[in-house]
Each structure stands twice: as C-alpha cells, then as structure tokens.
Write a structure and sequence with these properties.
- With 291 residues, the protein is of the alpha/beta class.
- The protein folds into two domains: 11-98 and 172-190 and 205-287, Rossmann fold, CATH 3.40.50; 109-171, no CATH class.
- It has helices at 63-70, 88-93, 112-123, 127-140, 156-168, 186-203, 214-220, 254-269, and strands at residues 19-30, 37-48, 52-56, 78-83, 86-87, 100-103, 174-178, 206-211, 223-228, 233-239, 284-287.
- It has a five-stranded mixed beta sheet, with helices on both faces. It has a four-stranded antiparallel beta sheet with strand order 2-1-4-5.
- A hairpin with a 2-residue loop joins strand 4 and strand 5.
- The chain is globular and about 50 Å long.
- The structure holds adenosine-5'-diphosphate (ADP) and magnesium ion.
- Residues 63-64, 178, 280 line the site of magnesium ion.
Length: 291
C-alpha cells in the first residue's frame, strides 16, 4: 500500500491485475473431543486486485474462519487457497502479505504513536521514517493530536482507529478486516466507513471485510458475498454497481436502497435475516508485511 502520495499504486491499474485471492473448493472442518463442526463447505471465490469484498452472514456461518484461511492463519481441511498465483502459505513466506495481527492489540505502556510505530520498529526502519509514517497514518484516522496519549486514555472507537493506523503503516496489499467497526456507534461507524474507502481508493489495495451490517457491506463494497450457515457456504454474490467515489450522498440514492434490499433478500433466502446476525467481537485482522 503506497502512502507516499506518488499514486503508483492508484486505482488506474486495478482493472489490469489478475486475481489476488482464489479459493477453490475450500472446506473446513473443526474436529476434537467435543465433536466435529463443518464450518465451511464448497467455497469458490475469486477476488481481483483492487476489489473491496464484504463477507456477510449470520453469526457462526464461517466468515471469520474464511478470513483466517485467506490470511493463512489456519489451513483449510481441503481445497486450494491461492494468493497472487501461489499457495497462501507460500505467499505469506514471500511476504506477499505477512503476519496477520488481530486488533486492538495496543500496548498500554506505549503511547499511541509508539504503538503505531511498533511494526516498523520490528522491520528495522529508521527512527525518522518510522515517525513520519506513523504521523501520516495517525493524521489520516484523525488521531494526530492524541499521538502522545496512551491507549487507556482513548475511547474504544479511537483505539480501533489507532489499530487501523498501525496496520496501514505496513502498506499491506491485502487488508483483511473482521468486523472492525462492529462495536462502534452508527455515526462513528459511518465516518470510519468513509475514511476506509478513501484509504482504499488511494492505496489501490484489496480489502476483504467481514460485517453483519447490510448497509455497511453495501456502502463499502464492490461485491457483497452473502454466506449461509450450517455448513457455511456462499449463498449469493451481489455486484454493487454504485459509482465511486462514494460519500454520504450515496446512502440517499435509490440504487443504494435497491441493493440493500437485494442483499437482505439473499440473506433471507440463505436462511436468516439481519436480525439474527449477531454482532461479532469487533476484531480487526490485517495482513501486514512479515518482519
Ligand atoms: P462467524 O465469524 O461467521 O461468526 P466463525 O467462522 O467464527 O463464524 O465460526 C464458524 C463455525 O465454526 C462456528 O460453528 C464455530 O463455532 C466453529 N469454529 C470456529 N472456530 C473454531 C475452532 N477453532 N474450533 C472449533 N470450532 C470452531
Ligand atoms: Mg466472526
């Protein structure tokens, strides 16, 4: 992810790029003394460079499991996970995307600035470059004036923004987010949604985003992947043909409401509607460069 403003990874070259993620016949079964759970069945999905994909579905349908498989945090029981044309594990070793951190994993004894700098420190970047990058990202998430604060001095939403800033300092090509705004109030969530789209536009990165909010998925995504439970599978994929860039006005457009309705209908066909999609833990996972 470029943050230097040179635009070399901008949106222009998106169309030319091939798939960043390819899932073929992915199955995941969790075993153990307590019994077996088939979490995912027959998952086929191809994600192109620069797409913004949301995974939506009721609690327990395997969204987090699928995201973790893409991030090579866990292996599928069977099937292929191809990232940048090679097995996900190989891609991770090659640093096509790196270690996947969960957030907010902010260290209380470090300032916000020092938290955001941490991955850059591990990579061995110079003090000056670390500071510059961290400051730019903190400004982007509007936490510039809180850089000297400690995590416990910030609200939950601000901590989540700090976690996002930290993830972005590593310029990930592939951003994996698991209900990052789930615990926030609606106003904050809408503002962060707009911010995230701005970052996505600028960086040209590919995002896979888990949410249980139909309107959030519709507003953010180029495609919404609707999942159904027991076992988790892809029930439908909805193309979101709303123009870019999107802003507050997008939410007022008739087409936006049509698409929201379509996603809701697909969820119902899949067996459950929005009311039964319980909020997740509001965790954030980001593919980052491996130190
Ligand atoms: P979602 O994120 O959509 O709420 P998850 O991917 O967390 O769903 O879980 C899908 C299913 O797999 C659930 O039935 C869950 O209990 C089960 N599951 C997830 N992780 C594990 C695990 N490590 N061991 C056993 N079962 C698991
Ligand atoms: Mg989950």
């Amino acid at each position: 992810m470029s943050e230097k403003g040179t635009g070399e990874q901008g949106t222009g070259d998106r169309a030319a790029s091939g798939p960043v993620v390819e899932l073929r016949n992915v199955v995941k079964t969790f075993g153990g003394s307590a019994g077996r759970v088939q979490a995912l069945s027959d998952i086929d999905l191809s994600i192109n460079a620069g797409e913004f994909i949301s995974l939506i579905g009721p609690s327990g349908c395997g969204k987090s499991t699928l995201l973790r498989i893409v991030g090579d945090l866990i292996s599928p029981t069977s099937g292929d996970v191809i990232v940048n044309g090679k097995p996900a594990h190989r891609a991770r070793l090659d640093r096509d995307y790196g270690m996947v951190f969960q957030a907010p994993v902010l260290f209380d004894w470090r300032s916000i600035q020092a938290n955001v700098e941490l991955p850059l420190e591990i990579l061995g970047l110079s003090r000056t470059e670390r500071r510059e990058r961290a400051e730019r990202m903190l400004d982007l998430v509007e936490l510039g004036e809180f850089r000297a604060h400690h995590p416990w001095q910030l609200s939950g939403g601000m901590q989540q923004r700090a976690a996002i800033a930290r993830a972005l300092t590593l310029e990930p090509k592939l951003l994996l987010m698991d209900e990052p705004f789930g615990a926030l109030d609606e106003m904050t969530r809408e503002r962060l949604n707009a911010e995230l789209l701005r970052i996505w536009e600028r960086s040209g990165s590919t995002v896979v985003f888990v949410t249980h909010s139909i309107s959030e998925a519709t507003f953010l995504s180029t495609r919404v992947v609707v999942m159904s439970p027991r076992p988790g599978r892809i029930a439908a994929v909805v193309d979101v043909d709303l123009p870019q860039p999107r802003n507050a006005d997008t939410r007022e457009e008739p087409r936006f409401f049509e698409l929201v309705t379509e996603v809701r209908d697909r969820l119902r066909e899949g067996g459950l509607d929005e009311e039964s999609t319980a909020p997740g833990e509001g965790e954030l996972i980001v593919a980052e460069e491996t130190p």
